[in-house]
Amino acid sequence: MNLLSVSNLHVNFHTKERELAALIDVSFTLNRGERIAIVGESGAGKSVLGFSIVNLIGKPGYIESGSIKLENKELTKMNLRQLQEIRGKRIAMIFQDPMMTLNPVITIGDQLVETIRSHTKISYKDARNIAIEKLHHVQIASPERRFNQYPHELSGGMRQRVIIASVLLLNPDIIIADEPTTALDVTIQAEILQLLLAICRDNGVALVLISHDLGVVSKVAERTLVMYAGHIVEEGPTLEIINDPQHPYTQGLLNALPQMTLPGQRLNQIQGSMPSLAERPSGCAFHPRCPYATQKCREQQPRFIYSGVSSVACFLVEDMLNEFAEQDQEAN
Amino acid sequence: MLIFLLRRLVQACFVMIIISIISFAIQDKLGDPVQQMVGMTVSPEERNQLRNELGLNDGFFSQYWRFAKGAIQGDLGTSYYYKEPTLDVILNKLPATLELAFCAILIIVLVATPCGVLAAIKPKHILSRLLMIVSSIGLSVPIFIVAILMVYIFSIELNMAPSFGRGQTTEVFGLWESGLFTKDGLKHLLLPSLSLAIALMPIFVRLIRAEMMEVLQSEYIRFAWSKGLSAPRIYFKHALKNTMLPVITVGGIQAGTLVAYTILTETIFQWPGMGFLFMDAVNRVDTPLVSAYLIVVGGIFVITNTLVDLIYGLVNPTVRLASHGL
């Protein structure tokens, strides 16, 4: 059984005029110990997807329909109390900006200990020992001293380590990391990424990495989902997606990497920008920016189809596959 | 810490000098004390002689100098009416006012905090909406109307609590006349402290609500939710502590308003405190007493704000008083 399976998830944002769709028919699965990445530009719905897994989409967002199953437990139907048992204990989250994630007026130690004690009945002393052990685990020097310090006494990288320690406290099955390295220094990014990867690998924790950085993704994730305007447009093994992107959007993203351009040349970019929720184009949402767009793309929403080891939602690929199939039939 | 206190002390000295100049300067603008002290029959020559004796004919600066020399030694002049050192007269009335203010602050903290928190957590709840309406009315209705209404309802119509005086008091440590330890004293304290609290309550309810709503939007609260903490823990530990930081600061500033309102409250409820004394002193043109009152209140204000800064430093770990000496 899949550890986590999301199927046909629709998430809306409630506004006075109308309901705006932030996620449209999103489905994916996650196996125990697997590491997947969700990539896309800002506004694609990556973070909304991450947060909706534990039903933490801030108001006015809400899950309209669909199902999110942790093993056989349906998360979308749970009340707050039941969700609180899942949050932190089975599914833990790492946020984007470590400077904002820790409460500034509570000591590091308190913030760690309270997490443990909210889920398990153990003494303060035992909880403290676990917390210090985890701080040690994320390579924080002199954890006993850090334990009594406040967040502002630590650097950004250190704070992200503390946050990683805090999600490890209860040995969760899944870690959802929402751009965990975006707010950090480049040198520290690599360290934190290494740490996260090692921790997931060593403890068999499944990881959902939300990122816009394909470089980061390629180092960590086994499988990648590419999102555009609330849809998953391509899904497949990370290597496959990087080496042989099918969807024009994925191709554009990869093309836009600075490594794809010679020094001195203008960087490649995808023309235009991500549409806002309120002005989603008809048909395939990517068509205004797509160099291959046809009349069909403007009118109809492409289905998700299998293409080799990946799945893609694009008429271009679909038509090509159909052509191949016809040729095959003719040949036979 | 020591540096902080020393700096504060120096600041306080400047503030006190300025307050003393202002409060002294208004002395001869209030009216003629001699007029109040002697009858109609006294001749102008005798009046002038009395003025000379009181030093009222000297120049402003020599008068101020005389006053300041005394003030440094703790002598803020002698009341024309009581014929006693003004400081003694005021300190005599201080406990009554402090008890009134203390009870009002207690009521504000105990009522405004849960109300503000509720209004922030459940902004759409009918109670929160009601609270917001009542608090905007409270902001705009003057305290003396509230106080008079309370006297009318609770003392006259319902006969639940007395409307004037302190009632039975007991002596604590031989120097503090307290109404906190007798049933009668507490009964007398009820209406005045309640009206004083009501005057300041709306501001705090609204402030706590606004700050709390902002804090609840922050990333660390979202992170706390993602850790699976319970709602009470998130609201009352994670959010409230951050909410209180600006509230503490405003609270210190509001101490000045509180003092101003004690004058009104004490007058309405005939509360034998400093504010009531001050009103009497103004009416009697007892200028030394008026100046002394202003200086004592200034002192209280300075002390309160120093305490507030210390408390702020305790609550907010990012403020390290010792190292910055701010």
TrEMBL record, chain B:
A Gene Ontology cellular-component term: plasma membrane
Protein keywords: Cell membrane, Membrane, Transmembrane, Transmembrane helix, Transport
Every ABC transmembrane type-1 domain range: 94-312
Membrane-spanning parts: 9-27, 98-121, 130-154, 189-208, 243-264, 292-315
Subcellular location: Cell membrane
Any single Pfam family the record assigns to this protein: BPD_transp_1
Swiss-Prot/TrEMBL GO biological process terms: transmembrane transport
Highest taxon of the lineage: Bacteria
Database matches in InterPro entries: BPD_transp_1_N, MetI-like, MetI-like_sf
Chief subcellular location: membrane
Recorded topology in the membrane: Multi-pass membrane protein
Record family assignment: Belongs to the binding-protein-dependent transport system permease family.
Protein name per Swiss-Prot or TrEMBL: ABC transporter permease
Lineage: Bacteria, Pseudomonadati, Pseudomonadota, Gammaproteobacteria, Oceanospirillales
